[in-house]
Amino acid sequence: MKVYISADMEGVTGVTSWSETEKGHSDYSFFVRQMENEVRAACQGALNAGAKEIWVKDAHDSARNINPGVFKNAKLIRGWSGHPFSMIQELDNSFDALIFIGFHSGGGSKQNPLAHTMNPIDVDYIKINGQYVSEFLIHAYAAATVGVPVVFVSGDQALCHEVKEVNHNIKTLAVKEGIGNSTISIDNAMAIECIRKESEEALKADLCQYKILLPHSFEVEIQYSKHEKAYRASFYPNMKQIAPTKLLYKTENYFEVLRMMLFLT
Ligand SMILES: [Zn+2]
């Protein structure tokens, strides 16, 4: 079994403020250790479930957060290649399962102080076929194009609800709940223990149950925070500007959605 683990930071236990996710800030060092510990726990769970190969993608900000020594049996992808698969670059049909650690609810949700989708400065929210989407769903769909199922997701509670709506068989662990500019988190050590256990159980189960069905067509709405960003992005091929800060993009090919987001979000 070959397992891919993508790790973000805004959904890591306890993380509440941007400063706690910013390399170089004094708030950061404590929380990046927790991010690493959560990733290590998922790796251990995968190993216990029989994984022969584990790849970890550091997928937060510079993508150079996780210590390269995070787990002896895992390969670590640091930095951004520029591939449209973004937070799951190098994922292909040779992988059996995908795990998301530290993921967070998307722009348009009010249940994580750091809720956003892709670029938190320029993009207010992204909708696909009328629904607000998170980075989880964007990448779960990408994984579906190469036939790899998402088996387990840890992050905030609102994201876990979204995951269950996509496929209720996917295992989730809500390590925190956001209320306004605050969070209520479970204990760090408890989060690590549960991530190890849930990853292991998710991978030991029948992987067919985790399948996500890709829609046949995609209507992607991007709400920018500034009209000048929307104007510039409106020149992307087949892009339609429907309001001063809002764009609409339609396609039947999900890779084209990813390509567009690579350039415009
Ligand atoms: Zn992040």
Describe the structure.
By secondary structure, this protein is an alpha/beta fold. It has a single domain, classed as Dipeptide transport protein (Rossmann fold). Helix content is 29%, strand content 26%. It is built from 6 helices and 12 strands. The strands form 2 sheets. The protein has a 7-stranded mixed sheet with strand order 3-2-1-4-7-8-9, sandwiched between helices. Helix 1 runs parallel beside helix 4. Bound molecules: zinc ion. The site of zinc ion (ZN) has 5 residues, from loops.
Please state how the strands of the largest beta sheet are arranged side by side: 3-2-1-4-7-8-9
Give the cofactors and ligands: zinc ion
Helix and strand pattern = EHEEEEEHEHEEHEHEEH
* Annotated CATH topology: Rossmann fold
Overall, the morphology is globular
Total strand segments: 12
Structure class: alpha/beta
Query: Under the CATH scheme, which architecture would be assigned?
Result: 3-Layer(aba) Sandwich
CATH class (first level) name: Alpha Beta
What is the CATH superfamily? Dipeptide transport protein
Note poorly predicted spans. Answer: none
Distance between the termini: 34 Å
